[in-house]
Amino acid sequence: MQKLHVWIILSALLTVTTGCWEREKVVVPEEVRSVIAIPSGYEDFDTYPGFRDWDRIPLKYPYQLHRIDGNPLCDLQRLSSPQGVTIFGNKTTILSDIEIIAPAKDFAAVEMSLEDINQGDKKFAILSYESGECEFFLTEEEMFEHLKSQYNIAREELTFYTFNQLFQYFEEISFER
Fold this sequence. Notes:
Elements: H1 2-18, H2 30-33, H3 43-47, E1 50-51, E2 54-58, E3 63-68, E4 74-79, E5 91-103, E6 107-112, E7 124-128, E8 134-137, H4 140-151, H5 163-176
Antiparallel strand pairs: 1-2, 2-3, 3-4, 4-5, 5-6, 6-7, 7-8
């Protein structure tokens, strides 16, 4: 039995040293690469993934996605920190219980869970990065009509992602840096 343990340890060591356990590269879609983890001048904002029981994804500064304990739902937050304390400073939650999000250059479109009774029956929202204002919609069709009139974006031009998908892309972008 002891020989078996030695053999397993030596096999694992040989595998690691010969590079057989190479990290699998994730292909980040260009439309995602251009709207998450964009260099803002604040290193901790651009690269910090979270700590222990919480994860984060930077969007356009000062906005970020945040989740706790691997929850599939996330929050969209705005940081209001002084320079140098970007990640650990004050945060304001703008949208909560987000199921999927389509980050873009000028806005983020989201579909939320209706778990939060304060949202009523409005399940869709668009956050304008420039104004910091959210607009809420009852249906996906209303949201896409607004996107077409306000941003000249058609439904086909947006792809929605879960937090897990975006976090995987964020990790790949951070690894490449």
